């Protein structure tokens, strides 16, 4: 935040703190979620955020909210900021399909793309184990699913397509193998070499991928022996198509690649909603930067859209509730640079003048829940105030220069959950000590 912006924030901070003190409610146990559950009402889209990708409390509170929404509001499935193939294995395990894995550790141990800890962690394991037990009370077609919404799994998605077509569609298989061969020279670096090559030959493998997608979509009505595997094959083809577009956009400056990714996640949500029927309801787990409305941040001025904005624009009549998260201090799992070993990193106290600092003062160091309809018309909240965002790469010594997103909080979220002090996530892939189950597992699930 600029110095002048900090001064403006400080001018209003006492008024903001007093307002939050009057309107935010305590958050100590699941009963304290009642105002949130009531506020959600009949909404069909509930978006649950996080201010980092490595914080224990964000995962456990999201799980508690999700359990209540499934049990009390009849929500149909969970969609997360994760790769489709990895999360699809979790989905099959949670639904109790045959040969879907002997235990949660063996299923999660197959997560191998950095950063593995985002979903291969004991917090997610506890939720999936709970979901598996919950699902046993229902027939297979009514069980609650768990799906990845992201775009990054090109290689894994292509492998899944080929494995499926080998058994079901020899003609489409030949087309898929042609597309795979086109990409083989660029397989080593998550699309970066493909992005560079596409700057010289813009179409590169686009024609082959589109041919594969068209052929699979055309033949979907004939793939009818396992409806969910058919959905998965179709989804993997869309991932290949949109990942190819994403890779080509990577080489350019600007918002294009970000928008391709978030538009892909929204189209995946739409596809899943259609698959689950007209009464379907979805719970989305993603970072605040995706689920909070981009128009309430400086993202909008840079031409960026996100999942929260697009779902609000497209599904307002069906109800969209976005829940943001934040914390004052604690610890987090992250890397110092891309591809770095995961490590526990201290999160310093939030900077003076930030949203997190204001909540800390208002709550006297306690966790709080705030419904934005209580404060949305307050003038003192109508300007941009810094709101902390931590990614998979985190260097706290640089935090005040790049980790605070100027935000109009009542416009970005419908509800905000503030955790005063957080702790680091518990990854499953721990090195060098191997698999260590936390003493408090399964965290009250």
Automatic annotation (TrEMBL):
CDD domains: Ere-like (cd14728). Transmembrane segments: none annotated. InterPro entries: Emycin_Estase, Hydrolase/PRTase-associated, UCP036794_erythomycin. It holds the Pfam family Erythro_esteras. This is Erythromycin esterase family protein. It comes from Flavobacterium ranwuense.
